[in-house]
Amino acid sequence: MYPDPMPSFTDLYFGSVSVKRQTAYTLFKQHGNILFAHSAIQQQLHDLVDRSSLLSIQMASMGMNEVCRNCGSKPGGGCCSNFMAGETDGILLLINLMLGVDVKVQHNDTIECCYLGKKGCVLKVKPIFCLNYNCRKISQGNPEESLTILNKVAGRVLCKLVEIEEAINKELLSFYKA
């Protein structure tokens, strides 16, 4: 049995941004090495990085980094709004920590997502909403072929993200069993 209590489901998925960040850092500190040593998780992380890299390349080729950053910094915040930072769960932040991303807050304002940096989102692996939604500026500002590629690549990332979150949750639960 592990001496520290298991983080609550609420802390991981419904807590404030700061609670989810702190929970992710705590889990990383306590269990990161064990999770890294798990061969299936290692392979899934590798696959996720490959898929996320392809998605980043596609997004950049469509000019999405600049479009999203500019929109997110305006009143109302667009998709990359302060509200959306709260849609990022603790396991996703843990995955980003495992991929070498320091999930620190980029700024504290009431407009932009706190993970939106000067060059776009600092997260290597984005929240599900961010991967699933394309606003009018994106959908009408790009050729259909580019959007099809974007959706296929994002779908592959989402599938892998679900798999790795399941594997990590399963592994974390095993740490706290009696």
Report mean pLDDT, rounded to a whole number. Answer: 87
Number of strands: 2
The arrangement of helices and strands along the chain is: HHHHHHEEHHH
Count up the helices.
9
Spatial gap, N to C terminus: 5 Å
Shape: globular
Structure description:
With about 180 residues, the protein is mainly α. It has one domain. It is about 65% helix and about 0% strand. It contains nine helices and two strands. It has helices at about 10-15, 15-35, 40-60, 65-70, 80-85, 90-100, 130, 135-140, 145-175; strands at about 115, 120. It has a two-stranded antiparallel ribbon. A hairpin with a 2-residue loop joins β1 (about 115) and β2. α2 packs across α6 (about 90-100) and α3 (about 40-60) packs antiparallel against α9 (about 145-175). The radius of gyration is 17 Å and the shape is globular. The mean pLDDT is about 85.
SSE arrangement:
Layout: H1 9-13, H2 17-37, H3 39-61, H4 64-72, H5 82-85, H6 90-98, E1 116-117, E2 120-121, H7 128-132, H8 136-139, H9 144-175
Antiparallel strand pairs: 1-2
Helix pairs in contact: 2-6, 3-9
Q: What is the compact description of this entry?
A:
The protein is mostly helical.
